[in-house]
Amino acid sequence: MRKGLKGRKGIWVTLFLIVGVVLIFGVETGVLGEFSENPLQNTPLRIDPAGIRFQGFRPKLDHVEEGKYVTRFQNGVTAVYTIDAALQTTMEKFFKRYRVPYGVFVAMDPKSGKVLALVEYSAENPKSEALATRATYPAASIFKLVTAAAAIEEKKADPATSISYYRSGMRRLGPKHWTDNPKKDKLKITLAEALARSNNTAFAKVALRWLDVPKLIDYAERFQFNRPIPFELPVQISQMEIENSESGLARTAAGFGDVGLSPLHAALIGSAIANDGAMITPCLVDEVFSPTGEKIYECTPRVFATAVSSETAESLREMMAMTVISGTSRKAFRMKRRERSLRGITIGGKTGSLTGEDPPGKYSWFVGMAPLEAPEIAIAALVINRPLWKIKASEVAKEGFAAYFRPDLPPRKVANQ
Known about the structure:
The chain is α+β, with helices and mostly antiparallel strands. It is built from 12 helices and 19 strands. Helix 2 packs antiparallel against helix 12, helix 3 packs across helix 7 and helix 6 crosses helix 8.
């Protein structure tokens, strides 16, 4: 009898040792993980080497806990978003107040890549979705930032470089404008002033003198045109083509080319300039927790592209300051001193305007950042008006900056340099 008990005990000890070896091997090799339950399997969230992604799902951003938008999935998993609830709500109300046909506002922390606002509004089509991530909008003069970056990075020009032109070429553009004519080109403008005032002739001449089609395409792709943008939600690629001709180069450089741009991508361009040329992967999901409260995922800053050098980015920021001070946004920001939250805040930006077809209307852009000495926020604002103008993107931008820097709000954490 005792022998039988000893035999059974020996069998159990052997089995225990075998199971222990298997468990140790499984933990060390990760094989066991293949058989464990994935806490995200009953949610639309998936983690891959590039980060976290939504599958067939768009957050509604309608539930706030401790100042953060949150989604609680049925299986108990919780997603916490990067959105600043106060900024998001302010900009939603702003668009509703003016009932713009279409309006988009995107804000990012240029150091961390965290999306601080993702506002999409349409009085014309309230059920519209993905307005911030579609790239059917013409880039217009926002593309002048790429042209300026290429000329400066290639050391062909700097903000003080002088360009001759004649008056009728400030807004119009054609061969008679971009062809040098000493008899008519009596006016001079620096590259910085040309960016601030969005001088089309000056930018056509910059491209024709110092760049070529392959070079301009190269810099556009450094800024992620024709490239996929990593994000939790699908982002339409900002497609660009340049006709291989003098006209194609001149018109594209000045903002009249076949170039699409999404507002998310526009904010990313502003973020790169704000962040010394480095593009940080944009992030909408801040953290994800399991049903037991264990942190499954956390957004961490990751550089996925370098558009230009830090020196060129600094030059662009200095030039963009003139847009607000004396350029195309001066009227919108003229009264900023009366905005308590904007007193002492240096702002840089670039405007763009053009007629588009998808959806049809008059497109108004603003891309910018603040404060210029150490940018905390980069934004992109887009308004599509028709037939009458409601507001311009510069006004949306001023409202966004004012909301972000409100003194009655607690100080925000700024990502490490």
